[in-house]
Design goal:
InterPro entries: WLM_dom. This is Ubiquitin and WLM domain-containing metalloprotease. By secondary structure, this protein is an alpha/beta fold. The protein folds into 2 domains: about 5-90, Phosphatidylinositol 3-kinase Catalytic Subunit, Chain A, domain 1 (Ubiquitin-like (UB roll), Roll); about 135-305, no CATH class. Helices cover about 35% and strands about 20% of the residues. α5 (about 160-170) crosses α7 and α6 (about 220-235) crosses α7.
């Protein structure tokens, strides 16, 4: 491991993080309210190191890696600490797997035929495909309760044997898998309440899933969410809900169920079933995905402004500002509640 020369500096308006990776320093600038999750996202996007491959060695704190035990850890709180990043890019993982595969083929050619006991070997081709056809970034909504639990849920979907098999077969690579805010995708009228379960933007650029119950404190049935993910992956190929779409959707569902050799079906939280649920309204195209944005057509979160065309760092800054605003509002409400007469 290269000598660590990294550090973190903070100012009143921003936090500058410099970390060491393979002996080379990399600097990132964040808003003052940025967290360790923001640093993880930046590393995944700028250095192409997927979150499951990331390990941060921080002096006096030790080893931190996603999903973090404390995803709300402020970057400003680790000022002046040395940081080493350990992790391989997706390209490096593929290269190592290919090299090992080449060595195995060579050894098999030159080694004389021997009668040996059967033993397990790595399926290098499968591992290469799983590294390529997958969800590159997993992103919970950091302003909702327990984002680390949502990240674990998203990781479980990514690691699901059936999902991995279907993505390999259809060669699906999804840059971002994230959760949706239930309140932004729930509509009520005189006929009842309708809840959207998932969204696919720009044919697989982003897939959003309703993980939580309406109260935010519980999680929905795992197999129901997995079936919704199958539905959204079918939108990678077909946008409208026509016969082509439904044929592919049913095919993916069967493939996922058939490859599900693990126990799979229990939920992470309490199961909750609803009436008037819809998978989605078809694959949506156009615009840019923004953390916390609405379902389609640039509908924004309550109290936010349009973020279309903003860079990733601008989006991070805006998200941090909104988190700070919510904290201040919540603090003011708590003080107001405590000042009333008994």
């Amino acid at each position: 491991m290269a000598t660590d020369t990294s550090n973190t500096m903070s100012t009143d308006s921003q936090v500058l993080v410099t970390l060491d990776h393979h002996g080379k320093p990399h600097s990132f600038s964040f808003p003052a309210e940025a967290t360790i999750l923001d640093l993880s996202y930046a590393v995944a996007e700028d250095l192409s190191i997927p979150q499951p491959n990331q390990k941060f060695m921080i002096s006096k704190l030790g080893l931190l890696k996603p999903p973090f035990k404390n995803p709300s850890l402020l970057l400003s709180s680790i000022a002046n600490k040395k940081i080493n990043l350990i992790g391989s890019t997706a390209t490096e993982v593929l290269s190592i797997a290919q090299a090992a595969n080449d060595v195995a083929r060579y050894v098999n050619r030159v080694r004389p035929v021997q009668k040996v006991k059967a033993y397990k070997t790595h399926d290098w081709k499968k591992e290469q495909e799983e590294a390529q056809y997958t969800f590159t970034i997993l992103r919970p909504l950091p302003y909702l309760p327990n984002p680390s639990r949502s990240l674990q849920f998203l990781q479980r979907l990514k690691d699901d044997a059936g999902i991995k098999a279907a993505m390999r077969k259809h060669k699906f690579t999804v840059p971002l898998l994230t959760e949706m805010n239930p309140v932004e995708h729930t509509q009520s009228n005189h006929e009842g309440t309708t809840r959207t379960l998932g969204l696919n933007r720009n044919r697989g650029e982003v897939i959003e899933l309703r993980l939580r119950t309406d109260a935010y404190d519980g999680y929905r049935d795992y197999k129901t969410i997995r079936k919704t993910l199958c539905h959204e992956m079918a939108h990678n190929v077909w946008g409208p809900h026509d016969r082509n779409f439904w044929d592919l959707c049913k095919q993916i569902e069967k493939e996922v169920e058939g490859a599900d050799w693990k126990s799979g079906g229990h939920s992470l939280g309490e199961d909750e079933y609803y009436g008037n649920e819809v998978d989605d309204h078809g694959g949506w195209s156009g615009g840019e995905f923004v953390l916390g944005a609405g379902s389609a057509g640039n509908v924004e979160s309550a109290g936010s402004t349009s973020s279309q065309g903003m860079s990733r760092r601008e989006v991070l800054a805006k998200a941090a500002e909104e988190r700070l605003k919510r904290r201040l509002e919540q603090g003011g409400q708590s003080e107001g509640a405590g000042s009333g007469s008994g």
